[in-house]
Amino acid sequence: MMMDARKFRILQAIIDDYILTAIPVGSRTISKKYEMGLSSATIRNEMSDLEELGYLDQPHVSAGRIPSAKAYRLYVDQLLQKGIIPTGESENVHRYFDDRTRQMEDVINHAAKVLSGLTHYTSLVLSPKGKELRIRNLQLVPVSHNSALMVIVTDGGIVRDTVVNVGEGLDADTLYAISRMLTERLNGHTLSEASEMLTGARQGMQENHRVLMGDIAAFMGQAGTGSGQAKLALGGPSNILNFPEYNDVEKAKGFLSVLETKEKLVDLLESHGEMAFTVRIGPETGIPELSDCSLVTATYRLGDNTHGTIGVIGPTRMQYGHVLSILNAMGQQLSSLLGQHKE
After folding, report:
1. What are the two backbone dihedrals, phi and then psi, of residue 295, each rounded to the nearest 5 degrees?
2. Cα separation of 44 and 128, whole Å?
3. Cα–Cα distance measured from residue 286 to residue 86, given in angstroms and rounded to the nearest whole number
4. Could you give the dihedral angle defined by the CA atoms of residues 220, 221, 227 and 230, in that order, rounded to the nearest 10 degrees?
5. Rounded to the nearest 5 degrees, what angle is found at the Cα of 300, between the Cα atoms of 299 and 305?
6. Looking at residues 262-281, what average pLDDT do you find?
């Protein structure tokens, strides 16, 4: 019996729930609270297997399970540090890392909702540009005799992953050694920088290493370019309608059209640069539809070289002191929350 992707997902849910509640976790709890698409009976069987494997303890016959010390070690080493997941099911592994990839997006979307709720204005949260993200860790996990799952963890916990071809003689131990070497050399570099470094370093390598490095370099180059567009999350887009200035239908439609297209807002937020705060009042926004609005923005950071922007749009008579205070607190919270993945 081995730890597969499904068991790992169930174990992760049990640990998360137990940390939150300190109550032994049963199969029905997992079935109801976590959308896994599995029945309680299936989860119960998997929990029995996890107990047999030593990852769960059952304090009482009729009670649920609690994580063992072995489970916490797995959680810390593989979940929080994004290490190797021992599975042969590459599709499930991809799904897991897709879930981790959405971690930042979830935080940003939630931050937008919180910010609009606190200010009663329309909020904007802009993620860092992908091309600015810097590599923190790289892992090559064998999934078959000639392929491996490459996982690149960047600052802020953002993950990029793909399956790469591996040549003859590149077994699990060799791939682990290559992973450590690449992590040491590429740590702190952007994806685009790493791609150039690997392309230049291929000369003189053995054929199988040269092919592997070529695939890795190509993926990094593509990921660095393709993810360059920052993501924008909006909160309370209709909040502006609560203000009498926007009782006029055409005026409200113009405002909402800017929110819908987003491009102008992204350009405006990116022009914020790395300034701690900016306040653009009325026509200073440069967007005619926002000529009666003010935009207040602040910066949050994921590291020394990576930053995103948060902002609030409201009538020019907004409560600026209150908004600046909230943006300052929200920026610190996001920096702390998203920066917790730093080593």
Report:
1. -120, 120
2. 41
3. 53
4. 110
5. 95
6. 80
What tokens does 103 get?
A: 């971690």
C-alpha closest to that of 287 among 306, 308, 266: 266
Calpha distance 10→50 (Å, rounded):
9
What stretch of H or E contains 234? strand 232-235
Question: Residue 75 — very low, low, confident or very high, per pLDDT cuts 50/70/90?
Answer: low
Q: Is the model's pLDDT at 123 over the cut of 90?
A: yes
Contact (CB, 8 A) for 6 and 43: no
Q: Which amino acid is at 53?
A: L
Instruction: Grade residue 318 by pLDDT with cuts at 50, 70 and 90.
Output: confident
Is residue 36 within 8 Å of 43, Cβ to Cβ? Answer: yes
* Nearest to 80, CA basis, from 162, 155, 157: 157
- What is the Cα–Cα distance from 50 to 190, expressed in whole angstroms? 39
> Amino acid letter at 100?
R
Q: How confident is the model at residue 341 (pLDDT cuts 50, 70, 90)?
A: very low
**22 with 63: CB under 8 angstroms?**
no
DSSP conformational letter for 25: B
Neighbours of 101 (CB within 10 A): 14
pLDDT tens for residues 183-234? 999 988 888 888 888 887 766 566 767 778 888 888 888 766 654 566 788 9
pLDDT digits (tens, 9 = 90+) for 162-188: 888 877 667 888 888 889 999 999 988
